[in-house]
Design brief:
Elements (H helix, E strand, L loop, with lengths): L1 H15 L5 E8 L2 E2 L4 E4 L6 E3 L5 E5 L8 E6 L2 E7 L1 E4 L3 E4 L8 E4 L9
Parallel strand pairs: 1-10
Antiparallel strand pairs: 1-2, 1-5, 3-4, 3-6, 6-7, 8-9
């Protein structure tokens, strides 16, 4: 039964992967945009974006792969992660921080890590 669920999830991800061409979003702390936050694809760490002065990032998606997480770094220290795919037995598969959505991550982290 677990194998069937896993295969179904893989099918859903692969069937939707052609519809997504990039990840995008905003990173904020204390309601202020964070600039120079490095956003890295978990499974493809050579895929990187840096937030601009508005806290916005845009990261290209690989043609045959949807990342499950994006990692956030400040001064080469991992500070948080973003979940791209969420599944629920009643609501199905949901994608976040993908093209066409205006998703924002509001960080609640120690001030010693990021000073704004």
């Amino acid at each position: 039964m677990k194998l069937i669920k896993l295969l179904f999830l893989i099918f859903l991800i692969s069937s939707c992967s052609n519809k997504i061409s990039y990840y995008q979003g905003y990173i904020y702390k204390n309601n202020m945009p964070l600039e120079n936050i490095k956003v890295v694809a978990r499974d493809h760490p050579d895929t990187i974006s840096i937030t601009n002065e508005k806290g916005y990032f845009k990261l290209n998606k690989r043609a045959t792969w949807i990342e499950k997480y994006l990692y956030l770094y400040s001064k080469n220290k991992k500070i948080d992660s973003i979940s791209i795919i969420r599944t629920h037995p009643e609501y199905g598969v949901k994608y976040y921080f993908i093209e066409g959505r205006n998703d924002t991550l509001f960080l609640k982290i120690n001030n010693n890590v990021i000073k704004k």
